[in-house]
Design a protein that fits this description.
It comes from Rhizobium giardinii. Keywords: Hydrolase. This is 2-haloacid dehalogenase. This protein is about 45% helix and about 10% strand. The protein is built from 10 helices and 6 strands. The protein has a 6-stranded parallel sheet, with helices on both faces. β4, α9 and β5 form a beta-alpha-beta unit. It starts with 7 loop residues before the first strand and ends with a helix.
């Protein structure tokens, strides 16, 4: 599928561009303490609780991680230590891009301005963005917005800041639950799903599918 060139290409960062390795961080902290079965249960619980935490009242990402780890430990019946959650959080700014990202991004950045809307903090995100290998027109964090995706507020804030409407952007993400469902509900018709295996396909939401960011230039005929 070839899409018309938008005024801006907007991106989810963590997971889509940055190799957001929360599961790996949890394994590095807890792996020697848990059986493989218990470790798998903790990782899955941690994934679900992170989503639940961001749907509530605004709180810093550090608290999202802390609460999610604490709830996960309670669920599988192990002791929670705040320093374990802090170790996971401290990894976030160290994570770099998926291998396919720099080359693909740099090609489209020559033709179309790139924007990030991220569930991140102001003091974290630029460490990740600087590793992506391409210039960004605008970077917006959940801290700046005062809300996390999948809530609509971040997308609405982004459109207002860019001075454009839903018809003027293409939104790119590897997640339906955090990004593409909300984009659909807001009338963003031009969407790209990066199939990184995080979630199953859901054609109802209408998108171009690519396996990784190396396929993004071709979506716009670049």
């Amino acid at each position: 599928m070839t899409l018309p060139r938008p005024k801006f290409i907007t991106f989810d960062c963590y997971g889509t561009l940055t190799n957001f390795d929360m599961a790996g961080a949890a394994r590095r902290v807890y792996g020697e303490r848990l059986s493989p079965k218990a470790m798998a249960c903790l990782v899955e619980a941690f994934r679900g609780y992170r989503l639940d935490e961001v749907l509530g009242p605004w709180k810093p990402l550090r608290e999202v991680v802390h609460n999610s780890v604490e709830r996960s430990c309670k669920r599988i019946g192990i002791q929670f230590k705040p320093e374990d959650a802090q170790r996971i959080y401290d990894e976030v700014p160290t994570w770099g891009p998926h291998p396919d990202v720099p080359a693909g991004l740099s090609r489209v950045a020559k033709e179309i301005p790139l924007v990030i809307l991220s569930n991140s903090m102001n003091d974290l995100i630029m460490s990740n963005v600087e590793k992506l290998g391409a210039p960004f027109h605008t970077v917006i964090t959940a801290e700046e917005v005062g809300a996390y995706k999948p809530l609509m507020k971040g997308f609405e804030y982004m459109l207002d800041k860019l001075g454009c409407g839903p018809e003027d952007i293409t939104h790119v993400s590897s997640s339906f639950r955090y990004d593409l469902m909300t984009a659909y509900d807001l009338g963003i018709k031009s969407k790209v799903w990066v199939n990184r295996g995080h979630e199953p396909a859901n054609p109802f939401y209408g998108y171009a599918e690519i396996p990784d960011i190396s396929g993004l230039p071709g979506v716009f005929g670049l």
